[in-house]
Amino acid sequence: MAQQDAVTLLDDDHNEVIRMFEQYKAAHDDRRRQVLASQIRQELLVHMQIEEEIFYPAFQQATGDRELLKDANKEHAEARELLAKIEDDRTNAKLMLDLEDAILHHVNDEREKMFPKARATQGLDLMDLADRLEARKGELMAHA
Ligand SMILES: [Fe+2]
Ligand SMILES: [Fe+2]
């Protein structure tokens, strides 16, 4: 059983990736930056996938809110586009800063709109969702 609910679990991922961006910006050598960039990439791809597979559909079903989902999916698509550009141009620190901006914006939307609504919605079992998110994340991380 998960120790915390789905919203806390997802927001822990957010804090983790924000911390990784801070480390990336503070890193002095290219090698260290490359390592951090690829960790950020993995963290973001897994996080977006578990949200899309598990959390977003459950949220949409319980709330009937299509607008928040549409925005969230659009922002995930933008993040994936930036990640693809970064793969093609690994030394481009400007793209990493663009990615950080996009992620901060998206995280803010989830924190201020989606998560409070999820917590306020009856019929959304956030503990059960946390178990499913955690299990799926473990699987994806093992194969990443
Ligand atoms: Fe998201
Ligand atoms: Fe998220």
Features of this protein?
144 residues, mainly alpha, Four Helix Bundle (Hemerythrin (Met), subunit A), 5 helices, 85% helix, 0% strand, globular, binds fe (ii) ion
Overview of this protein structure:
The chain has helices spanning 6-26, 30-63, 67-88, 93-120, 126-143. The protein has a single domain (6-143), classed as Up-down Bundle (Four Helix Bundle (Hemerythrin (Met), subunit A)), CATH 1.20.120. The model has no long low-confidence stretch (mean pLDDT 95). The chain is built from five helices and no strands. Helix 1 packs antiparallel against helix 2 and helix 3 runs antiparallel to helix 4 (93-120). The protein is mainly alpha-helical and 144 residues long.
